[in-house]
Amino acid sequence: MSFLYGQLLTFGLPLVALPIAIHLINLRRRKRVEWAAMDFLLASQKRSRNWILLQQLLLMLARTAAIAAVVLMLAGPTLRSEWGALLSGGRTHHLILLDDSYSMSDAWAGEDTFAEAKDAALALLRDALDEPGTQEATIVRFSDMRLDPSLDEPWLPRTTLSLESLDTLRARLSELGPAESDAGPGPALSAAAGLIEPNPDESRIVYLFSDFRQRQWNEAKRLEQQLGSLEEQADQVHLVQCGQGQHPNLTVSTLEPEAGGRAAGVETWFRAGITNNGQARVPSVLAEVRQDGRDLPAIDFGAIAPGETVQRRFRVVFRETGWHSLRVAVEGDAVAADNTRYYACETPDSYPVLVVDGSPERVDSFYLRKALDPGGKGLAGWAPVVETASYLRNAEDLDRYAAVFLLDVPSLDGSAIERLEAYASAGGGVALFLGPSTQAAFLNERLYRDGQGLLPAPVDRPVQLLSDPLNPQADVVVSDAPVFRVFSGQRNSFLSLARINLYYGLRPDWRPAEEGSVRLLASLRNRAPLVLEKPFGAGVVIAQYTRLSPAESRIGPWNNWATNPAFPIYMNELVGAMSANRRGAASAEAGIPLAVGFDPEGQTPSVQAFAPGGSSSTVQAEPDEAGRLTAVLSPRPESGVWRAEITSSDGKTEQRLIAVNVEPGEGDLSRLDGAALAAAMPEANYRHALAKDFRRGEQQLAGYGLGDALLYALIAVIALEQWLAFRTGYHSG
Amino acid sequence: MTQDSKRFLHPDAIRRVGRLEVRAKSVVEGLLSGMHRSPYFGRSIEFLQHRQYAPGDDYRHIDWKAWAKKDRLYVKQFEEDSNLRCSILVDTSRSMAYGSGELDKFQYAATAAVSLAYLLLKQHDSVQCVTFDSEIRTRTTLRSTMGHLTAISESLEAVEPSDRTAAGGVLERVANETSRRGMVVLVSDLLSDVDATLRGLRLLRQRGHDTLVLHVMDDDEIDFPFDGPMRFDGLEDAQQLNCNPKALREGYLAALEAFLAKVRRGCASLGVDYALVRTSTPLDAALAEFLSKRLAARRKR
Questions:
Q1: Do A31 and B230 make contact, defined as CB atoms within 8 angstroms?
Q2: Which residues of B touch A33 (CB under 8 A)?
């Protein structure tokens, strides 16, 4: 048993002697009467002497017990698994699951949620130390378990509590801050089940300290099941709510180029989004933009309603080749971690694009080259490299191409197909343009392969799109896919002039293997698919079922699209979308181990890591399964732009920038209170408490509160006292 | 009895009357003014006086001749024989000194004794007063003159309650020393050996004495109303008792009731007229009630 206000016992327990003292004082203060009829009095006293003495003794005991009960009740006694302690030799294991996601950094009026959670946890363990028996504690952070649920080395491994270990823990906790992670309770609850395997020799209490953000606890059914399985192993499960209210919070939710990064000197449109995660409308939001450490004009996002995300486009030009960074930030609010978003990318002079041209006289690649690399001042940042189909057979360096175009290729051999598929699987983009040279059988058998190959849909035969003077609609109807988004709205006028004469019809019996596996990007006015997109591994394949160029063929010209002013835009958007993954921006999520991989040839395994704060460290790269070297710059990186310097054996250093960002969803501070939790998990058997009331509610948290029991005991004792007092004549009837 | 007389005969009023003799007279005058059937008047042959008839008077004593002459009803009063010899025994033991009201038991008993003496002397009976505790302390001579009342009063006023009660021995001694049959009135709280007291009373009855017991007790002794921690010191002995009186009240009242029952039964079996009087009761009313009961008992006999 322990007491919330143990010091009250020091002052209160001596009061137990009060009835005895009053009794002794009364012995000296008796009223004296000279009495005649002593015989009757003595007879009465003789007759009931023992019973009266017993009653008076009981009365004194009752009064003493009543005072003791009041004192104990005020002292807040708590019985913590006494039976369990009795049976187990008094060993209690306190397992604390600590939510350290960045929403826990929610600060208000000089306080913050995470500090509240730490204080409550420390208070809990300090009071546990007062308990009889051996007290042990384990502390698990959500972020640790997210990385590795089977982690056998939690933040605080199972430790026997003592004054010294508590001091050490206090010092460690004072330095512990919330991670920039969005780790939810699921992994921690799974891990907890492993950390408290049933053991009849101890009692086990699990405490989960969290802010219970709606987003993290929205999978209530699964969490309820996890809590259920945890309750089977633990004697008690406590959910301790930290923080209070929902404070205003703006989150920079997106910062990305609209179609991947561009080459040096090429204008790139970026899109930034800001989400209002507060409950009140923010009338004016201004975001600060910095490119490579230099301020750009701020972006006015205007007013943002609660729950709304507002996006703005802005233009950026990375003039120099090499690595660049970009940062968008809003003013500080309740949660600081989500106020800034970073972007880092490498901008070369140009990105090589492989064009495999199977058309007669390579006429198709001519139009593509002109579209991607017009020369002169028309800088697009692409460097098309035109090759024949045989090139693919031995191409070892497909990885260096930002994208691969196959133009009217009649056929490819097996090794070429394998290389292309490997390229796409690894994140590359492959564009297929059919044409007069294309062999339907080859396409269907080798490239489609019942949906397993690159081709999104099997072809049937070339079909002519008959002109329809009565139908004013454009031949090409585009979707709102990123590739064609630039043509949406009023800017679609040139595209409407594109005329399609011939196209490959799809096999009538074809249906996508599964919903969403093939996406229609553009169709003809007769609703026949014209451009299809198919995700392939980490990459993407985009197939156009008509020829690229307007050149004549045996059955006539296929279309005039390549002569349309919209064509270069289309091609640039297409290659941009396809190559976005490969040009991708070096980004990572905060709290997840940050690694850089590189080819071991000619490189030393020693990598210099520079954190956003400026600190640096040297890490050793380890070879991975693919034979590449991988260096972990930080196991739990903070958000910002990280820099890695890889040194080659000849002393040259290669620099890489990596933007590390927090998961923006964690900035949503809406939370579930006790009633909402109970409603979401009606079957779960747990105790809910508020961390701010932790001291007061500790009796419920850490054991069985005896306040009510003492109150009932007090009532019973007072009733007994009244009865005895009446019986013994100290009270009037 | 009128309301005014009642008011003046209340113990607190009597107490203000200083001398015992005067006190007794006021009691008796009050008593007689309200008692229309005298317990002693009317037994003589010699006519004394006429008195106007009042409701309650014996019809046999109406003087019809006087009614015929004056058209009013008169009763005839006769001078009674004064051959009654009455000994009034007043307990002066230490226990009689207890009193919670205006009069303690002794004062009440003394007043009652003198009042009785006055009543008897008015009837020309011979009266003597004996005070006693463990033995006889004072004894007046037996006389029937009204002036003897002063001697009786003075003998009682001179006494301070002391020593233990031993009524039994005293009664036996009185019985042995009084040769002629007469009336013996014992005024006491009877807080002594009840059996010895009853033996004494039996002896008196055996000697042919008309015996009366006026049992005087204080309200406290009968009701035992005490509360809170108290220490009781025995008046007649050195016994002490620290107690919570409420706890003992039930047993006390039971013991008292047993004592009173024993006294009542003993007196009844001996033919002794017995009356229990609270010191808070107006003395005239107490005496009237006592004497009325006695008269009624006589008639039954």
A1: yes
A2: 226, 230-233
- From A578, A569, A570, select the one nearest A378 (Cα to Cα): A569
**How many CB contacts within 8 angstroms connect chain A with chain B?**
110
- The answer to whether A380 touches A373, Cβ cutoff 8 Å, is yes
State pLDDT tens for residues B122-181: 777 788 999 998 888 889 988 888 888 888 888 888 888 887 888 888 899 888 888 778
Would you state the pLDDT for residue B90? 93
Q: How far is A63 from chain B (nearest CA, A)?
A: 17
A48/chain B closest Cα distance in angstroms? 8
Give the residue from B217, B221, B222, B246 with the most A CB atoms within 10 Å of its CB, the best one to mutate.
B246
Distance (Å, rounded) from C-alpha A732 to C-alpha B246?
Answer: 9
> What are the residues whose beta carbons fall under 8 Å from the beta carbon of A658, sequence distance 6 or more?
A344, A586, A587, A588, A594, A596, A633, A641, A642, A643, A644
- Whole-angstrom distance, CA of residue A203 vs CA of residue A81: 7
Q: pLDDT at residue B18 above 60? A: no
Residue A420 has pLDDT above 50, yes or no: yes
Which residues, at least 6 apart from B281, have a Cβ–Cβ distance to it below 8 Å? B11
Is A326 in contact with A255 (CB distance < 8 Å)? yes
Which distant-in-sequence residues (6+ apart) come within 8 Å of A126 by Cβ?
A: A166
Q: Do B183 and B85 touch, CB atoms closer than 8 A?
A: yes
Q: Could B241 and A45 be called an inter-chain contact, meaning their C-beta atoms sit closer than 8 Å?
A: yes
Q: How far apart are the first and last CA of chain A?
A: 40
List pLDDT tens digits, range A303-343.
999 989 999 988 888 888 888 899 999 988 888 889 999 99
- Interchain contact B197–A (C-beta under 8 A): no
Q: Which of A35, A43, A728 sits opposite B247 (nearest CB)?
A: A728
Alpha-carbon distance B222 to nearest alpha carbon in chain A (angstroms): 10
* CA-to-CA dists, residue A227 to A136, A208, A224, A381, angstroms: 21, 11, 5, 54
Report the chain A residue with the minimal C-alpha distance to residue B104: A36
Query: What is the distance between the alpha carbons of residues A213 and A215, in angstroms, rounded to a whole number?
Result: 5
DSSP character string of A460-513:
EEEEE----TT--S-SEEE-SSHHHHTTSGGGGTTGGG--B-EEEEEPTT---S
**Chain A partners within 8 Å of B191 (Cβ):** 36-37, 39
Q: Answer whether A41 sits within 8 Å of B96, measured CB to CB.
A: no
Instruction: Select the more confidently predicted residue: A559 or A473.
Output: A559
User: Which of chain B's residues have a Cβ under 8 Å away from the Cβ of A52?
Assistant: 244, 247-248
B contacts of A55 (beta carbons < 8 Å):
247
Model pLDDT for residues A370-413, shown as the tens digit of each residue:
888 887 665 678 889 999 888 888 888 888 898 999 999 998 98
DSSP B25-62: HHHHHHHHHH-SS-SSTT--SEEEEEEE--TTS-GGGB
Identify whether the C-beta of residue A272 lies closer than 8 Å to the C-beta of residue A118: no
H or E element in which residue A664 lies: none
How high is the pLDDT of residue B28? Answer: 62
Is residue B254 within 8 angstroms of chain A, CB to CB?
Answer: yes
B195 — contact with chain A (CB < 8 Å)? Answer: no
Q: How far apart (Å, rounded) are the C-alpha atoms in residues B161 and A489?
A: 130
Burial A213-240, CB ≥16 within 10 A → b, else e: bebbbeebeebbebbeebeebbbbbbbb
Residues in chain A within 8 Å Cβ distance of B252: 37, 40-41, 43-44
Crossing angle of helices A707-727 and A38-75, rounded to 10°: 170
Interchain pair B241, A31: CB under 8 A: no
DSSP conformational letter for B18: -
Calculate ∠ Cα B278-B143-B114, nearest 5°.
20
